[in-house]
Amino acid sequence: MQFFRITVAVFMMAFFGLASVHADEARPDVRIVIDISGSMKETDPENLRRPALNLLTELLPDDARAGVWTFGRYVNMLVPLDEVDQAWRSKARGASAEITSVGLNTNLVGALEKALYETSPDSGYEQTVILLTDGRIDMDKTQGDPASVINAAERQRLINSVLPKYMENRVRIHTLALSDAADTAMLQQIAMETDGLALKAHTADDLMPAFLKAFDRAVPAEQVPLKGNTFQIDGSVREFTALIFRAPTSTPTVLISPSGKRYGQASLGEDTRWHHDLNFDLITIDQPEAGEWNVEADLAPDSRVQVLSDLKLNVTGLPGSLFSGVPVQLEMALENEGELVTEPTLLQLTDVTLQVTAPDGRTGSKLLSDPENLPPDGIFRETLSRLTQPGEYRLEINAEGRTFQRRQVLTATLAEPLRVEVNKDVEQQVVNIRVYSESDMVDTALSRVISRIASPDGSSVIYSMEFSEESSAWQIALRPDKGPGQYDVMLNIRGVSSSGMTFKSKPENILVSFPLVADASVDEPPVSAPLTEQVQVEVPAESAPEELAEPEADQSEAPAATGAEVPVEDPPALPAADESPVPDLASKYAEQEQEEESDSGVAWWVYVLLAVANLGLLGGLAWWWFARRGRAKKNAVDETDEDIGVGPLDDADLDGGDFDSFDDDTEEEINAAPEPKIPTSMGGDADMGSPPEAPSAADDIAPDLDDGGDDWGEFDLPDDDKKD
């Protein structure tokens, strides 16, 4: 696994070339909303919410604004919203002792409503709510039954009133679900509506790391790498804060300066603040010595060192909520006193690196900087495409120089509000594909699903899938209209939430091989395929009956109505399994020997002629195959070789193509009749990719080698009526 590095010489800061001044970054406004309902006794038995609140309290910078609310049946402002200073921190530490688990209900909507206090779209702050809960809306005695009158009314108030105010006032909500009993679908939708994170702490021990991930998005912190038990502090650092998580067997934490001075909890100076809690120490040192510092402690994961300095690594472009197949455009730049560093002689000494960790733990990394090809504006850009795996993505961007280092670690979550279900019907020779909404917050009337079906003969058809009220899903029936072989179904989704937020998604392809054959899974329940997984139904080519030979394409009979299927004649029934002929291998082998004996007397020149004819035939077939393959791939984006180390992800298909490639000569367009008018708020919708081959499971986190990434183009179907 390769690691990205950034090298910048601090001693050359005097020669920095500075670009135009960036707009001043908004100060953070963080509202922490904590569930204190009775169920928290089981999900957080050690009440780790208290040290987690203390941790965030100590990490908040002095220029921030913050407040704390708790909720059970009623909502209480535990720490009033105010400017953060030592007095506010002292008040918050004292109030954390009041966090209990005594609430009778879960007034989640009321808590979010109260947390809107003094928010506005022009507040001058970067406004964020961090919501921790282990349950669901529960305002009566039904234990959170969503069908009860009171709970249903509260849910509608959340959708119709509260969330639109968050969107209007530009307030993000990072949700943190503690326990499997939480309404994760609702929490994911709340986060998605406001471009927040949807995090889950599976145990109470996961609570503090999850709080940190949300905090890092609310208050991005400049860090230096902690390598083993050492870290480097350069001369530009005015202050550092070391967050040291201790292992249970660790000795008391001690920091050792480059000159050998020891800092411990019992020996603090005027330049040091030390907060000791259940399993961590938070040490802040003003005007620290430059050089290598050491930590004496048995470090646990998530330890870090934050710095306050005029030299920063600025990272933009990563949303809180990701969607399947939607490219992410990252921009990374060094800043000195808020201005971009653009001097080529300095950027040549800079190595910029990016490391991405997928939800399943796989990691890809890439060197972004190239001394021979420097960005003239000082901004390093990278596109991440085909992020498709649900869960948390961790991005680490590093800047490393001869005398200093900078680091940013950010989290984003991918949680699809829709799921794809694929069912095959062997008897009818049809595969039913349905797209379901996972949440009642998706507006099915305005949302839209488009499918593109590539057939074995190289042609393709585009459908606008219909929404069925009966099945509560967008659906299409796939049949072997163009004969036996593999069909490639690509979906492109444009969703609209009940509160008006739009999202787009490109699930991975669904591969189906016809004719379908019965197997052990036929009698099992339908397989539900997440948007991120490939669903492939295969049958050996030799099993295909001759009756299903590929028919001639007749484009004049292409259906004009939008719909779930292409009407074709029902295919002939497959022969029963017990009727399949059993080959007599012994007699077949005997016949083969007789043929070989009869051929032994043929003149040698006959064999030569046969060989030449066979070579000519094979050459013609090869020419035809490559020509056809070239036409199928003519719109695919060529991969380029770059310096990238991707470990197990090096076979990733980094670009999925786009909908613009659907207008080739082998394509049919099946439009709605009439085509429904899409609201103008949905303009600029995404195009669906068209890779010539199905991407592998390693596609999820590979950085895109093409600077442009996926060209999503226009979402609406092409206007031309071109047919085959």
The rounded Rg comes to: 31 Å
**Strand segment count:** 38
Domains (count)? 3
CATH architecture of the largest domain: Sandwich
Tally of alpha and pi helices: 10
Beta fraction of the residues?
Answer: 25-35%
Low confidence ranges: 1-24, 520-603, 627-724
Explain how this protein is built.
- With 724 residues, the protein is of the alpha+beta class.
- It folds into three domains: 27-218, Rossmann fold, CATH 3.40.50; 222-414, Sandwich (Immunoglobulin-like), CATH 2.60.40; 416-573 and 649-724, Immunoglobulins (Immunoglobulin-like), CATH 2.60.40.10.
- 17% of the residues lie in helices and 31% in strands.
- The protein has ten helices and 38 strands.
- The strands form seven sheets. Strands 28, 29, 32, 33, 34, 36 and 38 form a seven-stranded mixed β-sheet that branches. Strands 4-3-2-5-6-7 form a six-stranded mixed β-sheet.
- Strand 19 (328-336) and strand 20 form a beta hairpin.
- The two termini are 48 Å apart.
- 42% of the residues are buried.
- Mean pLDDT is 74; it is low at 1-24, 520-603 and 627-724.
Short recap of the structure:
Helix content is about 15%, strand content about 30%.
Name its key features:
globular, 7-stranded mixed β-sheet, Immunoglobulin-like, 3 domains, alpha+beta, 10 helices, 38 strands, 6-stranded mixed β-sheet, 724 residues, Rossmann fold
Lay out the secondary structure.
Layout: E1 18-21, E2 27-35, H1 40-43, H2 49-59, E3 65-71, E4 75-83, H3 86-95, H4 108-114, E5 125-133, H5 149-169, E6 171-178, H6 184-193, E7 198-201, H7 207-218, E8 223-224, E9 230-233, E10 237-245, E11 254-256, E12 262-264, E13 272-276, E14 280-286, E15 291-296, E16 304-309, E17 311-316, E18 321-322, E19 328-336, E20 339-341, H8 344-347, E21 351-357, E22 363-367, E23 380-384, E24 391-400, E25 405-414, E26 418-425, E27 430-437, E28 448-454, E29 460-464, E30 466-468, E31 473-478, E32 485-496, E33 502-505, E34 510-514, E35 527-529, E36 535-537, H9 585-599, H10 604-632, E37 644-645, E38 667-670
Parallel strand pairs: 2-3, 2-5, 5-6, 6-7, 18-25, 29-38, 34-36
Antiparallel strand pairs: 1-20, 3-4, 8-16, 9-15, 10-14, 10-16, 11-12, 11-15, 13-14, 17-19, 19-20, 19-23, 21-22, 21-24, 22-37, 24-25, 26-27, 26-35, 27-31, 28-29, 28-32, 30-31, 32-33, 32-34
